Amino acid sequence: MKGNFFNILIFFVGLVGTITIGNSLYADLMQVFYGEQGSYWTHKDQPLSLKETGDDFQVLIGGEPLQEHLDGKTFFAADGELVPYPVVATDVTVRVNNWPDVKARILTKTTFTGFVFGVNVTLMLVGLVQTCLQRKKKAGNHPRA
Predict the structure, then answer these.
(1) Rounded CA separation 40/99 (Å)
(2) pLDDT at position 56, please?
């Protein structure tokens, strides 16, 4: 009787874990593969400088980095009256889509939740199979009339 209770307990622990962890895993995977990827941009009111984003990408103009053009004052823009002026680093700001970083964090989390989900499915199946085998064995011990 004690073994039967233990097997039923294992089954229900696995079932509850499969449902809860499985929903979390499903939600994370749906977000990664079908979620809105365009909502992770740097806010419009808080753009970043070129120096802050230098490790993420590099803008080349004529084969040279934009920063070199800005430092050498060889990059010009025109104001409202079409008067040219040299563009400086403070004139250039950048908005970055942070989706790759968010996606990497979610996928790292799904590695753990996927493992725990697998453990819970295993517990559920072991509990179910052991309970069924034990009941079958009990039914086999009773003589039939």
Answers:
(1) 5
(2) 82
